[in-house]
Inverse folding.
């Protein structure tokens, strides 16, 4: 069974965190484990955050760092690519207007891709195409000298906030992107920060070709070379009370402000009884190799094998997600990487296999 480990390379959503402690060091631990067990991962690199750090450092503001954080990020992704891993584009729109004030980053509430305008406005001195093109160019300028075959052509929206996808996908297609991985089956979160509704997506579909630029419109057959493939992150419904196990709570407490902000936002305007019910409801949870304890990892691995066994697809990969800032205990990942009946591929290599099976008439 093919698994695609994807690592969102970013600070916390509210701008908090330390590049070296929350990004560089934990990512290096993941990369070291991958090297030991011959696994490959895909790093989704938050380009806007990186550019903000780079600009601030070049203005003479060290932001409390002893060394250049942007340069450290560059070195790490170059080394990762050189070792056979993949690096692709990740964007959180709240960073576009971010400012470093009173020794910390202040981001705004524009967390959704839909909030980036098609044309410049008073609130935004940029536009959607410029943002996506800038991200693509930054990564290709950094990484093509390492590997001349490198292409930035896979996207992931920050916080899964890809909806509505039509404008984004039209531009991604124009820029030569071939795939997106912003969706997970059953996902739902509508509030001031999120616009996520993937409730019509089933978790037994490993990928689809996006129809009419709407990520929710699934076409199971390859249409033409400009069709974008959606690679959903595998998810499964579990009761929220079990989602927040001791392992996850420890990670939440590592950054109370950002984590509690998410929980409070989701429970906003609920009565006490509704808040209690909230934690006993089922929620589709993404397969997270950084947040899961061993029991939950084994549960998801078992469910993935069950899905694959009954799949109509000749090729049925699974995409996992993780965040460097959430990686504190390497035991669970180490045991996953030691599994004999799975292999760990980059998203780019998974897409190559999808095209092989599709073009040879083996889609399903």
């Amino acid at each position: 069974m093919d698994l695609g480990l994807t690592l969102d390379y970013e600070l916390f959503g509210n701008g908090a965190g330390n590049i070296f402690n929350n990004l560089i060091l934990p990512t290096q631990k993941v990369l070291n484990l991958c090297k030991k067990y011959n696994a490959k991962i895909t790093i989704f690199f938050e380009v806007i955050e990186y550019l903000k750090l780079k600009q601030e450092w070049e203005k003479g503001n060290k932001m409390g760092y002893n060394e250049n954080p942007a340069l450290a990020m560059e070195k790490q992704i170059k080394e990762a690519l050189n070792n056979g891993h993949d690096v692709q584009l990740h964007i959180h729109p709240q960073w576009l207007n971010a400012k470093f004030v009173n020794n910390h980053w202040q981001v705004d509430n524009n967390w959704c891709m839909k909030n980036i305008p098609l044309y410049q406005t008073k609130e935004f001195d940029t536009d959607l195409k410029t943002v996506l093109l800038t991200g693509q160019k930054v990564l290709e300028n950094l990484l093509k000298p390492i590997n001349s075959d490198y292409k930035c052509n896979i996207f992931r929206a920050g916080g899964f906030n890809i909806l509505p996808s039509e404008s984004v996908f039209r531009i991604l297609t124009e820029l030569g992107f071939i795939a997106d991985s912003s969706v997970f089956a059953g996902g739902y979160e509508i509030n001031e920060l999120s616009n996520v509704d993937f409730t019509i997506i089933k978790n037994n579909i490993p990928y689809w070709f996006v129809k009419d630029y709407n990520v929710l419109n699934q076409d199971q057959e390859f249409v033409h070379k400009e069709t974008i493939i959606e690679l959903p992150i595998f998810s499964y419904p579990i009761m929220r009370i079990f989602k927040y196990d001791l392992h996850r709570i420890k990670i939440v407490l590592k950054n109370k402000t950002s984590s509690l902000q998410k929980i409070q936002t989701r429970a906003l305007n609920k009565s006490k009884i509704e808040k209690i019910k909230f934690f006993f409801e089922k929620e589709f949870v993404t397969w997270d190799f950084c947040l899961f304890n061993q029991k939950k990892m084994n549960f998801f691995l078992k469910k993935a094998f069950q899905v694959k066994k009954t799949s109509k697809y000749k090729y049925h990969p699974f995409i996992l997600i993780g965040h460097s800032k959430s990686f504190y205990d390497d035991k669970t990942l180490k045991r996953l990487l030691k599994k004999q009946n799975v292999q760990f591929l980059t998203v780019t290599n998974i897409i190559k296999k999808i095209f092989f099976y599709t073009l040879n008439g083996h889609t399903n």
Remarks:
- The mean pLDDT is 91.
- The two ends are 16 Å apart (CA to CA).
- DSSP finds twelve helices and 16 strands in the chain.
